[in-house]
Amino acid sequence: MSVLERDPSIGLLGTNDDDRRVQAALSDLFSGDGTIYIVSGYFTYQGYRSIRDDIVSFLERARDNELILVVGPASDQFSARIAYDLWALDEHDQIKLYKQSRGLHAKLYIRDGPRPNCIIGSANITQVAFEYNVELGLEMTRERTDHPDLRPFFDWVETLVDDSVPLRRRDLFGPVQVGSSFVNWSNKARLLPVRNVALRVVPVLLLVVMLAVLFRFV
């Protein structure tokens, strides 16, 4: 018998109709109280809209509830509309947004408090991840935050927050977000052979520059 069969508090997440979907797991994450950490390499406005009502309910249910987000500030990673909407919702200083500029690619969604819950896997918070991509994730619930199955994830995300900086309105200015995209792709290009850069990365950089401004409205 596998660990998934022995332990009903651990489950797989996917995109297929016969799987428990990532979006449903995120909704359940917000059904509990505590501090929720959201780390998503790509976070689109349509993905955010899918869970916005859950976020609103979470914030309104208890003023002690907090939401901490770490996002990539580049225009192809994060929609400025999300930040503006969250700031508008934040009447009681419950939301903190951070930016991580080092090519953020991690996906971790975790809540402390009673019966803490953790979601980790391949899915970003995007409509494409929720409805189209082949995604795989793991959902786990334990009785306490310091449980050895959960403590490493909390330690990791707390370290990431310490290593990040608060997201400011000036970071969401269109040219600044496009510039962040360019820096990310340039840094990736430095790690590739020169020929690969010339044949593959340079055209991608040009495409990113052309599309990045449009992407921030998606």
In short:
By secondary structure, the protein is α/β, with parallel strands linked by helices. It has helices at 3-6, 22-29, 45-61, 80-89, 127-131, 151-162, 174-190, 194-215; strands spanning 10-14, 20-21, 35-40, 66-71, 95-99, 107-111, 117-121, 137-141, 165-166.
Explain this structure.
By secondary structure, the chain is an alpha/beta fold. 44% of the residues lie in helices and 19% in strands. Helix 2 (22-29) packs parallel to helix 3. The protein is globular. The mean pLDDT is 86.
Give the SSE layout.
Elements: H1 3-6, E1 10-14, E2 20-21, H2 22-29, E3 35-40, H3 45-61, E4 66-71, H4 80-89, E5 95-99, E6 107-111, E7 117-121, H5 127-131, E8 137-141, H6 151-162, E9 165-166, H7 174-190, H8 194-215
Parallel strand pairs: 1-2, 3-4, 4-5
Antiparallel strand pairs: 1-8, 3-6, 5-9, 6-7, 7-8
Helix pairs in contact: 2-3, 7-8
Domain PLD phosphodiesterase: 100-129
Pfam families: PLDc_2
Transmembrane segments: 197-217
